[in-house]
């Protein structure tokens, strides 16, 4: 694993690139270790074919460290998926991707960005709240969980028009 750190900023160095088909195996591998019920490889491929906005962060050895996927419908952006490889979590990569996706939505003149997140995903909720997202609603039993159970989702919104 070839990780470089920007010692001045204390942040992990990673290149931001548009997601392409060549990234999908690595993206899917991160998804599989990050989610209880991961998206399939085909779902990622379908998102790219549909023209959704996908981004990856790669280290100097071209290992994909994190990814994000979003879509735009009318004047609403939707963060569909964002995940960071376990060995580089809590290094600012998720925040960097989120900031980029928000900037892309702002550039596209979206008025807001919406997302759903598992109610139990405290780290993601903290990231989104710190970025300025607010909880709009709770969707009961939205996500599949362990042993046939279901888990609530929080619907969160970032008001792009106010920033």
The CATH level-2 architecture is identified as 3-Layer(aba) Sandwich
Class derived from helix and strand content: alpha+beta
Whole-number mean pLDDT = 92
Helix count, per DSSP? 4
Major sheet: 7 strands, mixed
Look at the structure and name the CATH superfamily.
Gcn5-related N-acetyltransferase (GNAT)
Number of domains: 1
- Fold-level CATH name: Aminopeptidase
What is the percent of helical residues? 25-40%
At the first level of CATH, the class is Alpha Beta
Biggest sheet, strands in spatial order? Answer: 3-4-5-6-7-9-8
| Poorly predicted parts | 1-10
CA radius of gyration is 16 Å
Distance between the termini: 38 Å
Portion of residues in beta strands equals 35-45%
Number of beta-strand segments: 9
Q: Shape, please?
A: globular
| Succession of helices and strands | EEEHHEEEHEHEE
